[in-house]
Design brief:
Elements lengths: L3 H21 L14 E4 L3 H6 L11 E11 L3 E2 L7 E6 L5 E8 L7 E2 L5 E8 L2 H4 L11
Parallel strand pairs: 1-2
Antiparallel strand pairs: 2-7, 3-6, 4-5, 4-7
Length: 143
């Protein structure tokens, strides 16, 4: 059984580690934004990932949908039941752009689109986003 002194030291250590974590993630008060998008929907379940943006009439301007994977992978995306074209941005575990597909049309279904190398994140945005923002390979997605 831990002595009272050891318990206090342990609690203080936990509090210090918590504060270090909080301050390291503050980014000097500036909020990090993925490509400066105003709104990002995050797929949280495999069902949400399978559905993606399918069936929607549109995607609001300056917004996107983020797909996150627990390990590096090479997922295949298609335009099943899509009603508008999108750009697909492939991101590695460090949030760097490793590739993209531009202006992917709903008419491409059932063709699939996959990254040329393993990725950790995928961002779907309105068609023209990559060109408008002049996104380049190797670019960091966060400001």
């Amino acid at each position: 059984m831990l002595s009272k002194k050891l318990k206090k030291i342990f609690l203080v250590l936990i509090a210090v580690l918590f504060l270090i974590f909080i301050f390291q993630n503050k980014n000097n008060g500036a909020e990090k934004k993925l490509f400066n998008l105003e709104k990002i929907e995050i797929t949280r379940t495999s069902a949400e990932q399978a559905r993606g943006l399918s069936g929607r009439a549109s995607l609001p301007e300056n917004s996107g949908m983020l797909f996150s994977y627990s390990t590096d992978t090479r997922p295949a995306f298609w335009m099943k039941e899509m009603n508008f074209p999108i750009d697909i941005i492939w991101l590695d575990k460090d949030w760097r752009v490793v590739g993209f597909e531009k202006n992917v049309s709903p008419s491409t279904f059932p063709q699939t689109f996959s990254p040329s190398s393993p990725i950790r994140y995928v961002l779907e945005v309105n068609a023209g986003f990559v060109d408008k923002r002049q996104i380049k390979l190797g670019e960091k997605a966060y400001n």
